[in-house]
Amino acid sequence: MVCAPSPVVMSRSYAAQRSWNLYDPARTAPFRISRSKIELFLECPRCFYLDARLGVGRPRGFPFTLNIAVDALLKKEFDVHRAAGSAHPLMEEHGVDAVPLAHEQLETWRDSLRAGVSCHHAPTNLLVTGGIDDVWVKPNGDLIVVDYKCTAKPGPVGIDAEWQGGYRRQLDVYQWLFRRNGFEVADTGYFVYCNGNVDQAGFGGRLEFDMTLVPYEGDDSWVEETLHALHACLESALPPAPGPACDLCAYSRAADAALGFV
Prior knowledge:
Helices cover about 35% and strands about 20% of the residues. With about 260 residues, the protein is an alpha/beta fold. The protein has one domain (about 30-260): Lambda Exonuclease, Chain A (Alpha-Beta Complex), CATH 3.90.320. It starts with about 30 loop residues before the first strand and ends with a helix.
């Protein structure tokens, strides 16, 4: 059984090419680059170029509505402790000496579509943004960057798998953004991981999750050089080669070959 996608209507007349939010080498205003666009560049520079320079984005997928629901409920749960200035029981269980941060900019930081945590990277004139899930504060004032994840798998969850590289880089970028905004940030961030329990006798209209904290030692040293490489890609008059592991580019090449275009 597969959960149905969101009832949000997705247009069948999806425009394959857009004319807005495109990089222009002659522009003087900062160009906004989200954390997800940085990840796209690392995955496939060609797909990134098609998106940011030419307005041809990857096909849209359906939203993961179950994950979105878990995310929203977690925020409500941690916000109760934020208002009380207390630690969540999960934090106490794992010995994290911190409380959820109460800050006037929190809702802005969470809003990835409109603002998020942002920083103007002067050397490239890029406005780097990212929407966080949560941030905690230690007694010494250091911030702990936190991300929520949801899955359903047997056994314990971790963050070391190769396919989870994007998760780790996500936290790295968030730490980099907070540091660029003048905050002291702890190297250790956390993933609040919710793992759907499939060992129950039945469904009964209720899905239970096991919650755990997965620590991650962040390393944002790669962000600076990546932004320069990303900027050079944007400035180029020609698209770069596809990423070696890009399934979409591989499909496009195979389709062109099958149709006799190459």
